Fold each of these.
Amino acid sequence: MEYRSIFENLFRRFLQTALLILDSFPALWEVPLVDYNSKDGQLCNFIDSCTPPDTAQEAFELFDSNFERHYTTNRAPFFMLLEEQWLANSTYFEGMFT
């Protein structure tokens, strides 16, 4: 008998959570995108659109300098939007973990 009541409580919680997830939010949502600064000082929306780094160290500095600038001046989310081609390049990928 106890197992049935535990199961029923869990199921009720699941349904309540599922209903919250399925609710719509009818409004325009805005997510701020923070510009990156490329190695030559130009602004770019995504890492892929910045001037490509030549070495793993330059790739690391691109992430590090932009994160440091963002962290010390802004508390909005810091998005690292990367495409597959960036991660497939071994030099760039290595620079992310230097």
Amino acid sequence: MQISRPEESLGGRDPDDTQPLADVLPQPLSLPLPEDGVDSTRRNLSMLDWTALIAVVAGGLNSGLIAAVNLDVIGKILPHAAAARVVYALIGLAALYCVVLLFRLADDLSEAPR
């Protein structure tokens, strides 16, 4: 039985003669910042935008828990069914608002100077 050396498995190449990972991996897309240095999409999100996004995430997590382990966190926290229905309605309105927010942000990005 013959044991091969690492140089033979590389086809005669030197093991230190490899490409750096920076040359092989794709580079992230970098968009230019405005003159003030602040990202315009972060600057344009209001408190209502953030509240709607947080409500949608909370509703999504609650829906996932209902589907996975039959645990309704909002139903457990709120004592009355009517209160839980109001929270679900607010989460639904927040989701509709986030759809509008999505289109607004897409419009802002398409108008951004490149």
Amino acid sequence: MANPMDTDAGSELFSNYEAELKLVQADLNQVLDQIAELAGEQRKAAISRAGRSVEEAKELVGLACHNARLHD
């Protein structure tokens, strides 16, 4: 049987990942909305920022999945 403390810690950790992912998603949505209005170097910079946000989101999802397997 799982230790209740492990379950609580796992739930809190998952909640933290979820909150971080929501922040990254909000930032990405903001950048994506701006890209259409930008040109030249500003557009390139925004696209790079969007790419970094996607990579950060992938990392957070990977960490959440990894920790979920540890708590199974």
